Amino acid sequence: MTTLQPDNQQPDNGTQLPAQAIAALSRGRKIEAIKIVRKQTGLGLKDSKELIEAYEQQHPQSVAATPAGITASKSRYSMTVGILVLLLVALMLALMFF
Question: Residues of the chain with pLDDT > 90: what percent?
Answer without folding.
Answer: 49
